[in-house]
Amino acid sequence: MNQIIVKFSKTILVKSGVDVYNMSWTPGNSFAVLESIMILSVVACDLDVYLVHRNGDRTLLCMVTCPSIHMAEQVYNQEPHGPGSCDLTRSTLSFVRTIDLQFVHRKASRIKTQSNLSILWDEININFETFLFWSIPGKTSCSSSMKDNNYSCISNHSQCMVPPYLPGYVCRCSRGFEGNPYLLDGCSPDIDNGYSPRPRKENCSGRCGTINVEFPFGLEEACSARKSFQLKCSSHSTKPPILRLNPAIEVTYINVSDGLLGIKYDSTLGGMFINSHVNSVGTPSESQEPKLYVDPLESASVRWAVANLTCQDARDNTSGYACVSTDSSCPGVISSIEGYVGYRCVCLPGFEGNPYIPDGCIDIDDCAQTPGLCKGICQNTIGNYSCTKCPDHTEYDITKMQCTPKAKQNLFLGIIIGLSTGFGLLLLSLSAVLLVRRWKRDAEKKLRRKYFRMNQGLLLEQLISSDENASEKTKIFSLEELSKATNNFDTARILGHGGHGTVYKGILSNQHVVAIKKSKFVRKGEISDFVNEVAILSQINHRNIVKLFGCCLETEVPLLVYDFISNGSLFDVLHPADSSNIVLACELHQKLQVLCIISTLRHQYQSSIGM
């Protein structure tokens, strides 16, 4: 790749009264700095180190703290990069043209004491190491750069590429070639013979913790197909084993059939460079192996190839061909950035397993794994399946996804349909009954309201409300109250019959016994007089006159409610013998007496209310 590693040191003198110090570094117009692998070492005391961005925002990189002068000097003399220094590696993918750092003294914790080691107190010593990516300045596209006389990709089998982080272009060798594309004949054929289709060691360990390590990967030397596939299982007494690709990258799973490797980066070591090894000081170093991992840019998984060869070239080299399983094939692995990476192996459709070992691809029972493939009988074949129709007298049941007898199925469907229909009819009938009952109740309420208005109920309410005595003694009963009091006008409650109606015995909700007169008819013209007389009669309180409590106007003919006399009628008291003439005379005499009293009281009542 077009990259170089740069290292430099700088010392900033600490001035009295100054707490903020800045450092800026720009490598040049043709270079970009990768912040992802920026290793910074700051030797000082009581400093906050910030990375300043182009928009003015700051990111705290580290804090350098010295708890005491004596301890800081003692530790520094033993280990210059111990306490009193700041070491870090940023892992964020970011290319910048300038690095701006800011160092801020913390006043609250700064120690003002004489020190024999002035390097910690009078200076800020900075050691900086990072990657520089470069490009050839010029045109912004490869097509225009190729027309330039100073076009740099002069080697045969070289090609131009525009990097995303710098203006200009870079050169690289074409697929299947390696070398220096900036020299004549610098790109030579790249024959990758590093893959070994069989482990050279027997009884290789194949598990690290919960992860299966399948070939072509391995945990020991001579157990993997190539050096870049050798993993390390680091076990600790207090932690579960950790599988690593290199010290900077942890492997979380291996999927051989799909060609995927689950990874997790260690940000302190710059794990982005998955195709590189990491040396003892944490700096990535290029491996002699070809770059077979597709750089995921900090993704959770990476794709990989087994060799940097085309499938055709790999098949021609039969001794090193990786796809050794009979039912396997060879697809290519292509990166959107780097182009063709190499090839890998995969089991043919209808097979699964490990294509990198002999007979590793095993036939899949498609019928068992995917029910419902056939609308009939499914039969598995080697690498495939076949479908046949259901036998006679059977048909395919989509709910059970199998062939079932027609009669049994029809009976089952018939039961379901019958139950559903019966339940539906029952629900419909109940709904109809409820609707009819509700309609009847509403009709009865409307009819009662009609009779109440027709029988001058509003006038009676007005008369009652305008007279305090009337409101205390007169009550307008509802039809529901009187029906409940007479057990729905039960014939057993009848006290007697007359020419104008029937009298029922009733018990009100307050347990008061009353006589309810239900007349047969009433003249429409007499309704107003009837209402006035009810208001007057309800006020009469005489020992020889039956007490009138009120009336009900919610029927076509109003109902009158009297006090109940338990000793019989006036005729029963005066004349125990039966005589129709005496009865008629008594009734006539009683009626005349009552009418006289009514007329007198009515005249007085109308005069009092101004009628």
Automatic annotation (TrEMBL):
<keyword id="KW-0547">Nucleotide-binding</keyword>
<keyword id="KW-0723">Serine/threonine-protein kinase</keyword>
<dbReference type="GO" id="GO:0007166">
    <property type="term" value="P:cell surface receptor signaling pathway"/>
</dbReference>
<feature type="transmembrane region" description="Helical">
    <location>
        <begin position="411"/>
        <end position="436"/>
    </location>
</feature>
<dbReference type="InterPro" id="IPR011009">
    <property type="entry name" value="Kinase-like_dom_sf"/>
</dbReference>
<dbReference type="InterPro" id="IPR025287">
    <property type="entry name" value="WAK_GUB"/>
</dbReference>
<keyword id="KW-0418">Kinase</keyword>
<dbReference type="InterPro" id="IPR000742">
    <property type="entry name" value="EGF"/>
</dbReference>
<dbReference type="InterPro" id="IPR001881">
    <property type="entry name" value="EGF-like_Ca-bd_dom"/>
</dbReference>
<dbReference type="InterPro" id="IPR017441">
    <property type="entry name" value="Protein_kinase_ATP_BS"/>
</dbReference>
<keyword id="KW-0808">Transferase</keyword>
<feature type="domain" description="Protein kinase">
    <location>
        <begin position="489"/>
        <end position="611"/>
    </location>
</feature>
<keyword id="KW-1133">Transmembrane helix</keyword>
<keyword id="KW-0732">Signal</keyword>
<dbReference type="GO" id="GO:0030247">
    <property type="term" value="F:polysaccharide binding"/>
</dbReference>
<keyword id="KW-0067">ATP-binding</keyword>
<keyword id="KW-0812">Transmembrane</keyword>
<dbReference type="GO" id="GO:0005524">
    <property type="term" value="F:ATP binding"/>
</dbReference>
<dbReference type="GO" id="GO:0005886">
    <property type="term" value="C:plasma membrane"/>
</dbReference>
<dbReference type="Pfam" id="PF07714">
    <property type="entry name" value="PK_Tyr_Ser-Thr"/>
</dbReference>
<keyword id="KW-0325">Glycoprotein</keyword>
<dbReference type="InterPro" id="IPR045274">
    <property type="entry name" value="WAK-like"/>
</dbReference>
<dbReference type="InterPro" id="IPR001245">
    <property type="entry name" value="Ser-Thr/Tyr_kinase_cat_dom"/>
</dbReference>
<keyword id="KW-1015">Disulfide bond</keyword>
<dbReference type="Pfam" id="PF13947">
    <property type="entry name" value="GUB_WAK_bind"/>
</dbReference>
<dbReference type="GO" id="GO:0005509">
    <property type="term" value="F:calcium ion binding"/>
</dbReference>
<dbReference type="InterPro" id="IPR018097">
    <property type="entry name" value="EGF_Ca-bd_CS"/>
</dbReference>
<feature type="binding site">
    <location>
        <position position="524"/>
    </location>
    <ligand>
        <name>ATP</name>
    </ligand>
</feature>
<dbReference type="GO" id="GO:0004674">
    <property type="term" value="F:protein serine/threonine kinase activity"/>
</dbReference>
<protein>
    <recommendedName>
        <fullName>Protein kinase domain-containing protein</fullName>
    </recommendedName>
</protein>
<dbReference type="InterPro" id="IPR000719">
    <property type="entry name" value="Prot_kinase_dom"/>
</dbReference>
<keyword id="KW-0472">Membrane</keyword>
